[in-house]
Amino acid sequence: AQSVTQLGSHVSVSEGALVLLRCNYSSSVPPYLFWYVQYPNQGLQLLLKYTSAATLVKGINGFEAEFKKSETSFHLTKPSAHMSDAAEYFCAVSGMDSSYKLIFGSGTRLLVRP
Amino acid sequence: SQTIHQWPATLVQPVGSPLSLECTVEGTSNPNLYWYRQAAGRGLQLLFYSVGIGQISSEVPQNLSASRPQDRQFILSSKKLLLSDSGFYLCAWSRGLSYEQYFGPGTRLTVT
Questions:
Q1: A36 touches chain B (CB under 8 A)
Q2: Burial of A113 (0-12, 13-18, 19+ CB in 10 A)
Q3: Residue B88 contacts A where some CB pair is shorter than 8 Å
Q4: C-alpha to C-alpha distance for B34 and A103, rounded to whole angstroms
Q5: Interface probe, candidates A2, A25, A44, chain B, greatest B C-beta count within 10 A
Q6: Which residues of A touch B105 (CB under 8 A)?
Q7: Is pLDDT above 80 for B61?
């Protein structure tokens, strides 16, 4: 069965520092992978997606993620954190059935220190 | 372009009262529809999904139910709310044959 593990429920970085949010997945078939961001009291917004094309995926707000099949990882990065990046980030992997469900990780809260 | 609406935005209800949350999608046809719940400090829990009008699948047995009376309308209901039903309820949609989901703004439900 598909599953997603996000390492670190909280990550704290200084403004201007590298952001690295970790996501490892388990899938018996080539997966589709997604990163979503959620600001307080809002819905989730799609940051980027991997759908078996280029392994390095660029998203909105300067974020990117690299699909590494050998490591079953899809880590999210941003070279320089901004205060506005403070939010909760969710990694998700595609399910296998005709419902087109996503399997979400438990989320990582990113804190950005001034 | 497509838009997803949820209402109400916030709701405070006493234990034992009924519930009806509505989700509507505009600008697309025959979407897949999903209801999620986020308890405080927790991740996303998929409650129901629907791949077509009148088709509802439940992920977690509970006192909630869902209905899809029209192609782009998804309703979450309860006959009697429990304290544990408090949370942030999110509706999402995806195109048929696609995993990419788009989320609504959510409904904050507090059961007192």
A1: yes
A2: exposed
A3: yes
A4: 12
A5: A44
A6: 42-43
A7: no
- Mean predicted lDDT score pLDDT of chain B: 93
Q: What is the pLDDT of residues A70-111, one digit of tens each?
A: 999 999 999 999 999 999 999 999 887 777 889 999 999 999
B85 neighbors B109 (Cβ within 8 angstroms) = yes
Phi, psi of B33 (to 5 degrees): -125, 145
Give the separation between CA B39 and CA B16, rounded to whole angstroms.
19
Cβ pair A42:B44 closer than 8 A: no
Say if A94 is an interface residue toward chain B (CB within 8 Å).
yes
Chain B residues within an 8 Å CB radius of A99: 32, 49, 51, 57
Percent of chain A surpassing pLDDT 70: 99
Handedness of CA B65, A34, A69, A105 (dihedral sign): negative
Q: Is B9 on the interface with A (CB under 8 A)?
A: no
Bridge partners (DSSP) listed for residue A97: none
**Distance between CA atoms of residues B40 and B63, nearest Å:** 19
A to B CB pairs, distance under 8 Å? 55
Closest by CA position to B22, among listed B77, B63, B96, B102: B77
Residues 6+ apart with CB under 8 A from A101: A94, A95, B34, B46, B49, B99
Burial of A104 per CB tally in 10 Å (0-12, 13-18, 19+): buried
Could you tell me if B15 and B81 are in contact, meaning their C-beta atoms sit under 8 angstroms apart? Answer: yes
